């Protein structure tokens, strides 16, 4: 069983600037969909669903960091929505796997023989 660290309070954009990360619940996209993460380009902040399990929050955090990087770099203009989502999901999965490997493992308590 993993012990996930708290989600960072900010992320760095591609110019090295700070992007605020906030937890919100429920998290509702402007189009009405409930979701686990939002990159708000106008407010320059990332919102994460506060009630999602920790692993899902980390996935959403990484995913939205890549959304921010793609929009800041202009790459989102050459990617269709589905392509952009797939790129963000693939990169987020790789970061999540690396984070999971680095986590301390909770060891099950060994019972003593009677
Ligand atoms: Zn996305």
CATH architecture group name = Orthogonal Bundle
Order of helices and strands: EEEEHH
User: How can the largest sheet be summarized?
Assistant: 4 strands, mixed
Give me the secondary-structure category: alpha+beta
Tell me the radius of gyration: 17 Å
Low-pLDDT stretches: none
Amount of helix = 25-40%
Domains counted in the coordinates: how many? 1
| Net shape | elongated
CATH hierarchy class name:
Mainly Alpha
| Arrangement of strands in the largest sheet | 1-2-4-3
Terminal Cα span: 26 Å
Record field, number of beta strands: 4
Q: Please report the number of helical segments.
A: 2
Strand content: 15-25%
Could you tell me the mean pLDDT? Answer: 93
CATH fold field value? Arc Repressor Mutant, subunit A
Bound molecules: zinc ion
Write a short abstract of this structure.
This protein is α+β, with helices and mostly antiparallel strands. It has two helices and four strands, in the order E-E-E-E-H-H.
Topology:
Layout: E1 10-12, E2 18-24, E3 37-40, E4 45-49, H1 54-73, H2 81-102
Helix pairs in contact: 1-2
The structure holds zinc ion (ZN).
């Amino acid at each position: 069983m993993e012990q996930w660290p708290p989600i960072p309070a900010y992320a760095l954009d591609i110019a090295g600037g700070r992007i605020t990360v906030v937890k919100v619940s429920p998290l509702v996209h402007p189009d009405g969909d409930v979701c686990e993460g939002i990159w708000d380009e106008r407010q320059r902040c990332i919102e994460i669903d506060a009630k999602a399990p920790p692993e899902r929050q980390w996935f959403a955090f990484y995913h939205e960091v890549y959304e921010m990087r793609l929009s800041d770099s202009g790459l989102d203009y050459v990617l269709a929505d589905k392509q952009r989502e797939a790129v963000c999901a693939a990169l987020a999965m790789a970061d999540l796997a690396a984070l999971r490997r680095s986590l301390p493992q909770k060891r099950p308590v060994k019972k003593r023989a009677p």
